[in-house]
Amino acid sequence: MKKILKKTLYMGVMAASFSMTACDLLDLAPIDTYGEGNYWQREEHVSAYMDGLHKNLRDAIFQHQYVFGESRGNTSREGTAVDGTSLNYGGLVAQVLNAENPGVTKFGDLYGKIANINIFIQKTKEATYMEEENKTYYLAQAYGLRAYYYFDLYRIYGTVPLRLEPNEVVNGNFNPEELYMERASGSKVMGQIKEDIAESLRLFGNNNSFDPFKRNNKKSYWSKAATEYLAAEVYLWNSKVSIDDNKANEADLSKAEEYCTNLLNNYGLDLMDNYAHIFDVDHKGNDEIILAIRCLEGEASNSGSTYMYNYQTGAWKTTGFNDEDGKLMGDTLQVRTSGMQRIEYLPEFFFAYEKGKDSRRDVNFLSAYHKETNDFLGTVFKKTMGHLNTSSNSYIWDADIILYRLAGVYFMMAEIENMKGGDVAKWLNPIVKRAYGENYVASKHGYVNGDFTQNELSILAEKDKEMLGEGQRWFDVNRMTLTKNGEHLVFCKEGSKDGKKPILDKVTEAYKVLWPIETEMLNKDPKLLQTPGYEKK
């Protein structure tokens, strides 16, 4: 996606045009600043618009991974970071949600991105200037992306408006009464997600390539493999989680396994030997990656600096910290002034790794200690960073953000195997063995299959170590269960990182597994109803 903003001439559509109606809050109507007569005339227009859809994906990735996927999953500290910076997202971390403090507003601004996809689908279907093979490839990407956004909406809100056609505003309908839309039932939303996945796979056909147009994209564009990964997530979720009128269907487990098996066999994927290489700038698009969000110097930065200290003005310089060996640290990570720590993970995540043995600890964390007593004080999360530009003496946050990778398939297969009563060790042990490398001792570090509860908790614990920062834990604890078909881990103390109390109290907070809609949106759209449980909160 090099120079994506220069290529997407039509991406004036990203701006939304609304008056004070419900549609402004759903962010529905992109503006065509070039006009119908000037765009959608050549295949280059379709390609540029698809670049824009991927920019939308990049713009939303931090919300998807941290805000939606981790902030409420008992991952983060509240209050002040180790460097003295005030931490963000305290309300989400503390589960303080209501119509005045909804966590996110305007449905996470995802409807503008869906509106752009809907326009793309309509215009690309109408295109007579493209070879059919190319047209179906672009459409396959679009249906996969739309399913991705609706799956986020489903897991966050449960019931949401289903907009599947270009918004009426684009086609000249400005009557607000006709633009209001009620929330579709859980079964309808899930049904549409599955339909879009099926259509995406049908259109991809036998095209298993990550880069069919030879753009050197290094797995940064939506692909058939990405749709299969999403499909595995969707069917695994639906096999274990009931939302609204859509009840968990264990029969979906076999479909999830089918998609995982395809990913294992059909795309040339392999676990990297070195955990650090998965994320560094020198190994973009490596064998483990299924879909990466591209970040490049001079184009777009990743969100790593949100987790990072600022050496020049923070406590790292003014107060000073020791490393774990008692030596005074400086700007150890060479970030200069580019970082500001607004998120810090709970220390339990750091201490879960075996010091000096599990390579993931020092890839993921830098720990800080009191410079006099050497007492542990906190950590910096450094999994996704970049490189130091020595010419400008500035840190560049250009490591790709990983959305889907093969290790995630292993964890899904372990969870599927546990539901089937099989041996999960064959899926966990390759992950553990890679983490320990030459330190691996099978009798000590290898996982031995246990009962359902032991397996489920071990899957979660290992996934915490492997995929922290990749947007998984909140969804994991809402999907995984303490016993087969039993209580979800979000309501069990075993699902919290310290094991002391549940993330949510089942009696008083069960409604909080879904998120509220803000008062402003409810006031502007008479067809929208509040998420059940939040009506008087």
Mean pLDDT, nearest integer?
Answer: 91
Provide the structure class. Answer: mainly alpha
Largest sheet: 3 strands, antiparallel
Number of helices: 20
Give the uncertain stretches in residue-range form.
Answer: 1-33
Q: Count of DSSP E strands?
A: 7
Helical content stands at: 25-40%
Distance between the termini: 44 Å
Strand content: 5-15%
* Strand arrangement across the biggest beta sheet: 2-3-4
The secondary-structure element order is: HHHHHHHHHHEHEHHEEEEEHHHHHHH
Taking Cα atoms only, what radius of gyration do you get, to the nearest Å?
A: 23 Å
**What best-fitting shape do the alpha-carbon axes yield?**
globular
Tell me about this structure.
The chain is mainly α. It has 20 helices and seven strands. Helix 7 (132-157) packs parallel to helix 9, helix 8 (186-204) packs antiparallel against helix 9 and helix 9 packs antiparallel against helix 10 (252-266). The two termini are 44 Å apart. Residues 1-33 have low confidence and may be disordered.
Topology:
Layout: H1 4-7, H2 22-26, H3 43-59, H4 61-68, H5 90-93, H6 110-126, H7 132-157, H8 186-204, H9 224-240, H10 252-266, E1 289-293, H11 315-318, E2 321-322, H12 347-351, H13 360-364, E3 365-370, E4 376-381, E5 387-389, E6 394-396, E7 401-405, H14 406-420, H15 425-436, H16 442-445, H17 452-467, H18 473-479, H19 506-509, H20 519-524
Antiparallel strand pairs: 1-7, 2-3, 3-4, 5-6
